[in-house]
């Protein structure tokens, strides 16, 4: 049974202690842990819509956002999450840091750890770099995306978005379409959706499909018609051109013709199918602009909103675990 502790600076509700010090990925997380994060995030959605959005849950705690890759949505979302919980949030600009002067990732980690932060939120272009850093510091670490490996909070916010619209994840058919090969979002979502009992399909041209991806427990499709058939949720992915060396697609125009989502292709899905995209979107390449803005079908702006709630829940759960073990 999980220990429970009261919430500081809030009310008397008990909070289950998260079973891990860090959140480095979704792979291996039990269903109960995922559900705990989603349930906790649900409580923050209404709070984030109030005029007064702040609590004192992280009063006296320090969160450092350490981003070795540019990101507007994720970094801003974590910054808002930390500040709305009453924490001290520091954004480190790596382009102006000692890393550019030759300092190694490990030296940076040890330097920051010596300042006694409570949480490091790290994004890095190399897979596994965040896990390595977590081994060297004495605080909680949240993976905000590492290479083509994982992006756990994106998968969690996607799951919360689906659950709030559909009421559940179990049994839903979710089609993840596009650049599967380079997408950490796809990998984290595959692990999470499988853990929660959804049926996952991946749809991409052969050049953008990882070898033997079916071992992750997904159905593999080479056409949108087959992959979207009777789908409940259609999740589009951005073309990760910054991770591509060489030509993976003949042309942008041809890619959109065969794999870009539009109303015609969406007809293969269920009549009430909903669409998602982690952003940033390339309109007219991965998704038709009019469809992306369709308030009846698109959950893209909901994903952005709920991302703050998910990151608030993650920061709270990890810091409260640390408090409980003191």
Outline:
The chain has 326 residues and is α/β, with parallel strands linked by helices.
**pLDDT averaged over residues:** 90
Beta content: 15-25%
User: So how many helices?
Assistant: 11
Count of DSSP strands: 11
Give a written overview of the molecule.
This protein has helices at 31-47, 73-84, 105-113, 129-134, 152-166, 184-195, 224-228, 252-259, 263-266, 289-292, 300-325; strands at 4-6, 14-16, 62-67, 88-93, 119-124, 140-146, 173-177, 199-203, 219-221, 233-236, 274-276. It has 326 residues and is α/β, with parallel strands linked by helices. It has a 5-stranded parallel sheet. Strands 4-3-5-6 form a 4-stranded parallel sheet. The chain has a two-stranded antiparallel sheet with strand order 1-2. It is globular. The model is unreliable at 1-12 (pLDDT under 50).
Give a topology summary.
Elements: E1 4-6, E2 14-16, H1 31-47, E3 62-67, H2 73-84, E4 88-93, H3 105-113, E5 119-124, H4 129-134, E6 140-146, H5 152-166, E7 173-177, H6 184-195, E8 199-203, E9 219-221, H7 224-228, E10 233-236, H8 252-259, H9 263-266, E11 274-276, H10 289-292, H11 300-325
Parallel strand pairs: 3-4, 3-5, 5-6, 7-8, 7-10, 8-9, 10-11
Antiparallel strand pairs: 1-2
Helix pairs in contact: 1-5, 1-11, 2-11, 5-6, 5-11
